[in-house]
Amino acid sequence: MKRVVTLACVLFAIVVGAPACLAQALSVDWKFYGGASLDGHSECFYDAKGVVQGPDGHIRVWTKCLLQKDVDSIDIKKDFDGKILENAGTKVALHYVPPIATVETIDVNQSIVITQYEETTNIGNFEPNANTFYELNCSERMLRELSVHFLVNGKSGSRDKPSDWKYVLPEGNGARLLKILCPMR
Hints:
By secondary structure, the chain is an alpha+beta fold. It has helices spanning 2-16, 18-21, 68-72, 83-93, 108-123, 173-181; strands at residues 30-37, 41-47, 52-53, 59-67, 130-137, 142-152, 155-159, 166-167. Helix 1 (2-16) crosses helix 4 (83-93). The longest helix is centred in the middle third of the chain and has 16 residues, at 108-123.
């Protein structure tokens, strides 16, 4: 099935024309960085357009996690007037590589699926099961949560008080986010 979707994306981009597909200007650009288990399996993204580096060198970034079942429920060919397929196909045709590939080995099919998830997240209007505003201390390999909003088992909650700084484990979402966003690897 993934090969059929891959071929459809590439052919769509070639037939329609690459530059026209990315014309939609978005205020966010969600990029995949990992998964989580919150009320079911979730795919997690960071806002690449919203990454800010402060004078102290710390990086601040919004993230959100969406239930995978919600992302998978979108028909990329029909929903949102086919824009998801159009944008993903264009990126594939232009040899786009998701940022996660800079820190993990992914194959072509995984790259295409991740690209589709990113475009679905950019265009789709989903209720995330978690939004977190992080501050990263790259030089110390630490992070803290500045703001957290979540929806688990139908119950919502939030915390807008910064957490304590935590050292990031060498594996997992925090490590991937640091590796992607921090200039030192």
